[in-house]
Amino acid sequence: MNFYLDTEFMADANACSVKPLSIALVAETGESLYLVISDAPREEGNEFVQEFVVPFLDISPTGERLTDQVITDGIYTFGSVLRKDAADVIKWWVTALSAQPQFWAWYASYDWVCFCDLLGGFLNVPVNWPQYIHDLRLFSTRMLEYKGDLTVPEHHCLRDAYQLQQTALYIKIKRKNERYV
């Protein structure tokens, strides 16, 4: 099964580091996981992160404030977790939906680094999971605007992950239709 990944993070070029703030995964079937890393040092973010990311981190998919527990509400699973606990939640959620997941992102490099970092590093990615990510940017030259029912703002990683899912579905339909032209 395909999973569409987006993260919000802080990058420090001088220290060659990336610090995850939040992660969102949307399954091709529509279920989603949104986690905020509660112990991330938000104050270290640059001007862009402070203006467009931090104010919206704690908004759940249903528009309420996140709590310190992971909640499943219909197709949404969301919550605020300590960085050390994120791997367990991510692995639990993904494996509940697929034994052999495939991951996709848009300009995927930083997202993949953050994702693997939250799993405990590249060497701790589960054995039956891929050691790479598919980058939708390589497959498409245009991004569709997300038109779903979420009440979260732009630059919210759950919205971005849903947008990835919608773009991938668009590409899949377009390819299918092109085969018969």
Polypeptide structure, described:
The chain is an alpha/beta fold and 181 residues long. It has a single domain (2-178), classed as 2-Layer Sandwich (Nucleotidyltransferase, domain 5). 30% of the residues lie in helices and 24% in strands. It is built from four helices and seven strands. It has a seven-stranded mixed sheet with strand order 4-5-3-2-1-6-7. The chain starts with a strand and ends with a helix.
- What gyration radius follows from the Cα positions, in whole Å? 16 Å
Q: Indicate the proportion of strand residues.
A: 15-25%
Give me the count of strands.
7
Find the CATH superfamily: Ribonuclease H-like superfamily/Ribonuclease H
Mean pLDDT: 86
> What is the strand arrangement across the widest sheet?
4-5-3-2-1-6-7
Q: In CATH terms, what is the fold-level topology?
A: Nucleotidyltransferase, domain 5
List low-pLDDT spans.
none
Helical residues, percent: 25-40%
Q: How many individual domains?
A: 1
Features of the shown structure:
single chain; alpha/beta; seven-stranded mixed sheet; 30% helix
What is this structure's SSE topology?
Layout: E1 2-12, E2 17-27, E3 32-37, H1 47-53, E4 71-73, E5 76-81, H2 83-97, E6 102-105, H3 109-118, E7 134-135, H4 157-178
Parallel strand pairs: 1-6, 3-5, 6-7
Antiparallel strand pairs: 1-2, 2-3, 4-5
